[in-house]
Write a structure and sequence with these properties.
Blueprint lengths: L5 E2 L2 H9 L3 E7 L5 E7 L1 E3 L2 E6 L3 H8 L2 E10 L2 E14 L2 H7 L14 E15 L9 E6 L6 E8 L22
Length: about 180
Amino acid sequence: MTSAPHHLSTAECWTRIEGESVGRLAIIRDDGGPDLFPVNIAAHEGAVYFRTASDTKVVRLTTHPASAFEVDGHDDDGWWSVVLRGRAERVGDATEIERSGVSRLLTASPRYKPHVFRLTPVTITGRRFADRDVVRAPSRTMVVDEETGAPAESQVPQHPHERHERPTTIPSHRPWRDSS
């Protein structure tokens, strides 16, 4: 039995966005299809700001400013997701750029990102999903005997979908050689 999602208020949505520094930007390709990019963001005065290099995003957002942005996460109350839809516009005003905080963002990409965009939402929606209690049957894990290299079966319960555990090593064997 699962519980229905809880819809977040606009204020709750902004609290989630303001607490994050990375999200996904959805833009329209020239052929009308969607494209998705991870971007570092700064939320400021009802808008999301991001920087980008001189690349596809600049060209596409200039010709097709309609875009969406999504950020999600997990906290003590479960999973949540916030989506905003609106228009992205290039920002050239140095004062606005400084006040937004976008120039102070650290990015994973080493590329120079001189172009700043502001995504001003027309709509913002958010949902929260409570963590579910999932009963999982223990699975068997293949363990390799270090001395013989032979597989040995372990009865240790493993939950492969829990991210805090290291994946189990898959035993590998030398290729079969035909001795004929």
